[in-house]
Design goal:
Layout (H helix, E strand, L loop, with lengths): L10 E7 L6 H9 L6 E8 L5 H11 L3 E6 L4 H11 L4 E4 L10 H11 L4 E10 L2 E4 L1 H6 L4 E3 L16 E4 H6 L12 H12 L2 E12 L14 H21 L2 H11 L4 H5 L7 H14 L13 H11 L3 H14 L5 E3 L5 E3 L22
Parallel strand pairs: 1-2, 1-4, 2-3, 5-9
Antiparallel strand pairs: 4-8, 5-6, 5-8, 7-9, 10-11
Helix pairs in contact: 7-8, 8-9, 8-11, 12-13
C-alpha cells in the first residue's frame, strides 16, 4: 500500500459525468475508498442536465481529493481530454461515471506499472449486471498472469480497448501525443491502440480492477448499434486504429489485428440485419468490404462459424440470405447444425440456404470446431 504523502498525487482519475446522477455517487465512493491514498479525482461535468454536476460539487466540498470541472457538453472524448488538462498526477486513469472500481484497483495497477517500469498497465474487467459480476472469458485469458510485454509479443492485447482498466504514465501520454477522439463514439479503440503501439513496455495484472456496468435502459452507447450514426462511428474508429497499426509496420501485428481484433464485435452488428434499414445495410456492406474485402474475407477471421458465414454473405451483398442466417442462429441460441461431407470435412447447415451458392470456406468448420 502506498502511504507517503506528497503535494502531487500519484494517480489522477478522470471521471466524465453526463446525466448520471443515479450512478455517480456509487462511482465516486468506489474511487474515494481506494487503498491508494495519493489520489486525485477529476470529475468533468459535461454539461449535464440533471444533478450530476451538483453531486460532484458536493463531493468536492467534503473531500479535497475531488476536483470538479464544469464545461459545455462536448461528449465523452472531449470531457476526458478536458479532465487530462486539469489532472496533476504522475499517472492517468479513467473511470466512467456509471461504473465502479474495486478498493485495491489503483494500488494494483500502480504496483504493476512501477515494478516493471511500464508506461502503460492494464488489468482485468468484469461486467456488472445488476448485482451479478460476470466474468469475460477473453479478458480472463488476456490477463491470466502478471507479465510485461511489447505489443509485438502479444498483439491480441489490442482487443482490450477499454480506457478505464488502465493507467498511463503522464509523461508517456504527453510525449506520445495521445488524446481521445472527440465527437465520435467508440473513441477508446484509436487511443488505446496508439498507446499500445507507442508504449514499448506494457504491464499486465491479472486482478479485476474494474466493474463495467451494463445498463438495460437503452441509454448506453453500446445499445444503439442498429443506427446509421453508430455504425458510421464504428467504421471510422476501426479505420483510425487500423491506420495506426499499419503505420507501425509489423506484419504480424497487422495480421492479428485484422483477423482477430477488428472482427471481434461484428457479431453484435450482424444480429440487427433482419430488421435493419436500407441505409444501415448499405453501410454495413461498404465497411466490411473496405476493411476486409475479397482478398481478406471474414471467412479467414477468428469469428465463430455462424458469424463467418454471415460476414461472407454481407461481403457478397446477399441481404436476404444474411438475414436468414442471422435469424436462424438467433433462434437456435446455439451452434448451427452440422453436415459431414464425403471427404470427412464438416460444414454448417442452414435450412433455406443452398450451400452450392456459398464458397466452401464460408461454411466449413475448422478442426477445433468440428
Amino acid at each position: 500500500m502506498f502511504r507517503r504523502r506528497r503535494s502531487t498525487p500519484l494517480v489522477s482519475v478522470v471521471v466524465p459525468a453526463y446525466d448520471v446522477a443515479a450512478y455517480l455517487p456509487a462511482c465516486l465512493d468506489s474511487l474515494l475508498e481506494q487503498t491508494l491514498p495519493e489520489l486525485e479525482v477529476v470529475v468533468v461535468d459535461d454539461g449535464a442536465t440533471d444533478d450530476s454536476g451538483a453531486i460532484a460539487d458536493s463531493y468536492a466540498d467534503r473531500d479535497p481529493r475531488v476536483r470538479v470541472v464544469h464545461i459545455e457538453n462536448g461528449g465523452l472524448g472531449a470531457a476526458r481530454n478536458e479532465g487530462i488538462r486539469h489532472a496533476r498526477g504522475e499517472y492517468l486513469g479513467f473511470c466512467d461515471a456509471d461504473d465502479l472500481m474495486p478498493p485495491r484497483a489503483l494500488e494494483r495497477l500502480l504496483a504493476g506499472a512501477r515494478e516493471h517500469d511500464a508506461p502503460l498497465v492494464t488489468g482485468n474487467v468484469v461486467r456488472l449486471e445488476g448485482e451479478r459480476r460476470a466474468r469475460m472469458g477473453w479478458m480472463d485469458r488476456f490477463h491470466a498472469e502478471a507479465r510485461t510485454i511489447a505489443i509485438d509479443d502479444f498483439p491480441e492485447l489490442l482487443g482490450d480497448v477499454f480506457a478505464w482498466n488502465k493507467l498511463f504514465r503522464r509523461d508517456f501520454w504527453d510525449r506520445a501525443g495521445l488524446a481521445w477522439p472527440e465527437r465520435i463514439r467508440y473513441e477508446d479503440q484509436p487511443a488505446t491502440t496508439d498507446a499500445y503501439l507507442r508504449a514499448g513496455r506494457i504491464a499486465i495484472v491479472p486482478e479485476v480492477v474494474y466493474q463495467w456496468r451494463v445498463r438495460d435502459d437503452g441509454s448506453s452507447i453500446t445499445q444503439q448499434r442498429a443506427t446509421v450514426a453508430d455504425l458510421t462511428d464504428r467504421w471510422t474508429t476501426k479505420q483510425m486504429a487500423l491506420a495506426s497499426v499499419e503505420e507501425y509496420g509489423a506484419p504480424g501485428v497487422t495480421e492479428v489485428f485484422r483477423e482477430r481484433v477488428l472482427p471481434g464485435d461484428m457479431g453484435q452488428y450482424f444480429v440487427h440485419i433482419p430488421d435493419c434499414s436500407d441505409d444501415w445495410w448499405d453501410l454495413l456492406v461498404a465497411g466490411v468490404r473496405e476493411i476486409w474485402g475479397p482478398a481478406r474475407s471474414l471467412t479467414g477471421s477468428t469469428l465463430p462459424p455462424a458469424q463467418r458465414l454471415i460476414g461472407w454473405l454481407v461481403e457478397e451483398d446477399r441481404r436476404a440470405d444474411a438475414a436468414l442466417v442471422s435469424s436462424y442462429a438467433r433462434g437456435l441460441g446455439g451452434p448451427l447444425p452440422r453436415v459431414t461431407l464425403s471427404d470427412g470435412s464438416v460444414r454448417v447447415d442452414v435450412p433455406g440456404l443452398d450451400p452450392a451458392t456459398v464458397v466452401p470456406e464460408a461454411m466449413l468448420l475448422r478442426d477445433h470446431e468440428a
